[in-house]
Each structure stands twice: as C-alpha cells, then as structure tokens.
Amino acid sequence: MKIDVIGLGYVGLVASACLAEEGHNVTGYDTNTKKLKSISSGDIPFYEPNLNELVKLAIQKQTFELKKIDKYENLFADAIIIAVGTPLSNMGTLDISQIQVAIKWIISNYQNLPFIIIKSTVPPGTGEKLISQYPELANKYISNPEFLREGQAISDWKNPDRIISGSKNLEGNKCIEKIYENYTAPFVHSDITSSEMIKFASNAFLANKISFINEIANLCDKLGAYVDDVSKGIGLDPRIGPNYLIPGVGYGGSCFPKDVQSLSDLSMTHLQSFDLLQSIITTNQKQQLMPYFYLSEKFDNLQGLKVCVLGLSFKAGTDDIRESSSINLINQLSNSGVIINTYDPVSINNSKKVLPETVNFFDDPFDAINGVQATIIMTEWSEFQNLDWKKVYKSMKNPKIIFDGKNYLNQKLIQDLGFEYFAVGRKIKSQK
Ligand code: UGA
Fold first, then answer.
1. Which residues contact 400 (CB under 8 A, 6 or more apart)?
2. Which residues of 4-13 are buried (b: 16+ CB within 10 A; e: fewer)?
3. What is the structure's pLDDT at 430?
4. Cβ-based neighbours of 273, under 8 Å, separated by 6 or more
5. How many other CB atoms are found less than 10 A from the CB of residue 138?
6. CA distance 120 to 9
7. Distance (Å, rounded) from C-alpha 320 to C-alpha 315?
8. Tell me: the pLDDT tens digits for 232-267?
9. Closest CA to 224 of 429, 369, 11
10. SS3 373
11. Pocket lined around ligand 1, Cβ cut-off 6 Å
C-alpha cells in the first residue's frame, strides 16, 4: 500500500520504518527541515534501540522517503497516518492543534481524500469533534491508537497484543486489516470514541497498577513485609497478572502522567469526579520523591550532603527525560541544598538543558560516586545492576547509603558488603 505518515516523532518514525520494512511504500512528512535532514543522513534525533538501522535500510531500499510538509498538487495515498504531538497545553488539556493543521493540509493537497488514521493520542471524543468541524472526514476517519513503549518500540510494533480501530464504517476497518494483514493479533473494531477510550483506559489502568503496588510497598515497609514476594504472589493470579507490579520511585514519561491527568480533567468536564485517577496521580507524585523523604528523615539537615543520582531518563532504554522521577527528585534535592553528582548512559545532554547549573554531570559512574554519602538509583539501566559494588563501597563516604529506587539490585550482596540499603517495600534484610 502507499502510506503517508505525517509527523516523524517517536510514533511516526517507528511506524514509517516498520511499515516500509513490511513492504509498504511509505512517505514521511514533517515540518521540521533540520529533523528531516538528520533522519535522511541516518541520524535520528532521539535514542531508540535499532531504529536508526531500520530507517537507514528503508531509505536505502527506497521503500521510505522523507518530504517537508509543503504545498503539493494532487498527492495520492491509500492511507495517511497522523502521528503528530498532542502536548499538554497551558490550560492543562491536550493540545490537538497539530492534528487540525495536518487535517487541513491533507484536505487541500490530496486529490481523493484517503483514509486518515489517527495514531496521535487524543482524549476520547476528539474524533467526533474533528468530524463535526470537517464533515468530509466522516467516512475516512480512523482512530488507531498505538501501544508502543519507548525503548522497545520496534519489538512492540512487530508483536502487538491487539490492533484497535475505531471508525464509522466497515471500509475503515478493512483498511486497518489490510495494513496489518500479516499480524496474528486480534482486531478490535469499535466506534471512534470507544477506540480513543481504549488508549486512555489502558494507560490509566497500568498507572493504577503501579501506584497501587507502590502504596502496598509503603505499607510493607511499615509492617516488615517484603513487597517482591507480595508482587509475585498477587501477580500469579491471572485475573491480576504479573506486569506493572514493580514498585519504586513512581512512573514518568510523556504518556502516563499526561494521559491520567487528561482523563481526570475530561471526567471533570463531564461533571463526573473520577477520584481514583486523582489518587493515582497523588501517589505517584509522592513516590517520585521517596529518596528525598528518606534522606530528610535520616539527616537533620540536607544542606551540603553529597549524593550521587544514577539514571536520568524516565526508564531504561530511552534518553527521554519528560516527567522523569529522577529529574523531579534532583530538583527537590537541589532546592534543599544537597550537592548532586549524576550519571546516565544516554540522557546527560537532555538533562543539562533542564537541571540547575549546580548539578555535576559525569561520563563515568565511578567518578560520580566518588566521595558521596548516598547513591540513589533512579533508572533501571542494567549497567547499574552490574557495577563493581566493592569498588563503589571503597569510593563512597560514610554512612554509605544505597537507595535502590527501582527495587532491582541484589539486596543481599549490597547489605553483606556493609552498605546501608534502602528500597521501597524491602526494609527487611533479604535472605536470597
Ligand atoms: C506507555 C505504555 O506502556 C505504552 O503501551 C503506550 O503506548 C505509551 O505509554 C504511550 O502512551 O505512548 P512508556 O511511557 O514508553 O509506554 O513506558 P512504560 O514502559 O509503560 O513505563 C512507564 C513508566 O512506568 C516508567 O517510568 C516505568 O519505570 C514505570 N513502571 C513500569 C514502574 O514503575 N513499574 C512497573 O512495574 C512498570
């Protein structure tokens, strides 16, 4: 099929490269000339494992070409994917103006209106609103939300759990079935608003699982229970499932925080108070600052305390620092006068743009750890798990605290070396 993709950010570029690899003829459009040049020369502007190689290959094989959004006459495509950003506006709602600009551009540049597939995340009800604004879209509009995770987007694309399409007619569903004809995942066809709701409800539910296990972990700390065993025990019930039950310093990223907030706001606009969503958010805000609360209890005064924060991105496998727990924590510690050294394998450049100038960045974790009294792990990079902990012990100063914000270090090994170990819901000494 001839598929055009508008918006070559994270979702658009992954979709373009994967569809091109599957044999479709893909043209990617974007407004940003610098970004287009950099992608064409094989240098994608963000870190996503294996994406660079896939994009380069598709360009070489000429199944993927890049074009600037401009004025064209009589463009043709079987389907157009819109994958532009929908950031939070100053009003706290999702800003869909980039989608509106893309739709206007499509209407004035394509000879016959192709199917328009919306992959951008939009609040439920958006599609119907857009159709009332542009009635010619009615039979062409398809909501087809994405469930890709940063850091594993390509394997998520290739192995979807389900393919959702929301449209007003059978033709829309058929178009989606044709694009994904080689996939074995079940299709769920619905109306447009339900499809949009599936995306928001999925993210909110996962965020709910995380906040829930975090509160259970906090209670485990009070009672002397071990949250890893609790997670395992409840996750084996197939009605609950084992995923998204790892406690720690809360969730971050460009999706969960924004989508949970947006669903809560949407609910309020319809005069329905969805209290659960607000609790998920409040728990997460508290959880992101757990190491700060711990240090504040431990020391009378944080002024001048030397701390190393390992990990800046909101999770491993990405250089994305949006709503990262680590960035929020560093800001809080820094406001309290803590001296901060930090290291991350890929996110230092992004972080330098947003963190206070007083933060010390290092290219080597051991340089960052040298002479600090506490080391806090905020991102689950495997590199940190495999550090030479004996060496770490020698280079830290008393009281040699390790705060494992991801509950993923070998607790017994760390405690046997003599560190003061703290995590979330792992207060008792591990016997394993
Ligand atoms: C999330 C969803 O998982 C994707 O399905 C969705 O497509 C995407 O948002 C989106 O809406 O675009 P992503 O933000 O890349 O994907 O990150 P996740 O891997 O889901 O992790 C989100 C946060 O939850 C991270 O900060 C992670 O550290 C945290 N997390 C995850 C936990 O604290 N505990 C867990 O057990 C799992």
1. 373, 374, 393, 418, 419, 420
2. bbbbbbbbbb
3. 64
4. 267
5. 13
6. 10
7. 8
8. 999 999 999 999 999 999 999 999 999 999 999 999
9. 429
10. coil
11. 121, 146-150, 203, 206, 210, 244-246, 248, 251-253, 255-256, 314-315
Residues 133-179 have pLDDT tens digits of 999 999 999 999 999 999 999 999 999 999 999 999 999 999 999 99
Q: Which residue, chain included where needed, has tokens 């996962």?
A: 206
- Give the C-alpha separation, 208 to 282, whole Å: 11
Average pLDDT score, the chain: 96
Closest Cα partner for 343 from 390, 296, 379? 379
Q: Residues with catalytic annotation?
A: 255
Task: Dig out the tokens for 98 from the structure.
Answer: 């980039």
Mean pLDDT across the stretch 395-405? 98
What is the rounded average pLDDT of the residues 316-335? 97
H/E element holding 342? strand 339-343
Question: Measured in Å, how far apart are the chain's first and last C-alpha atoms?
Answer: 54
Q: Which of 148, 195, 318 to mutate to test the pocket of ligand 1 (most atoms within 8 A of CB)?
A: 148
DSSP 79: E
- Give the tokens for residue 135: 């009635």
Q: What is the pTM of this model?
A: 0.95
235: exposed, middle or buried (Cβ count in 10 Å: 0-12, 13-18, 19+): middle
**pLDDT for residue 90:** 79
Assess contact for 162 and 199: CB atoms under 8 A: no
Please list, residue by residue across 382-401, b when 16 or more beta carbons sit within 10 angstroms of its beta carbon and e when fewer do. eebeebebeebeebbeeebb
Nearest to 385 by CA among 413, 412, 408: 408
Is a pLDDT exceeding 70 seen at residue 189?
A: yes
The residue to mutate among 315, 322, 325, having the most atoms of ligand 1 within 8 angstroms of its beta carbon, is: 315
Name the closest-CA residue to atom 22, ligand 1: 251
Sequence letter at residue 215: E
Residue 351 structure tokens: 């972080």
CA dihedral 134, 137, 139, 143 (to 10 degrees): -110
User: Which distant-in-sequence residues (6+ apart) come within 8 Å of 223 by Cβ?
Assistant: none
Pair type for strands 163-166 and 374-377:
unpaired
Rounded CA separation 3/64 (Å): 10
Q: Which atom belonging to ligand 1 lies closest to the Cα atom of 316? A: 28
pLDDT (0 to 100) of residue 428: 75
Location of structure tokens 């809360």: 250
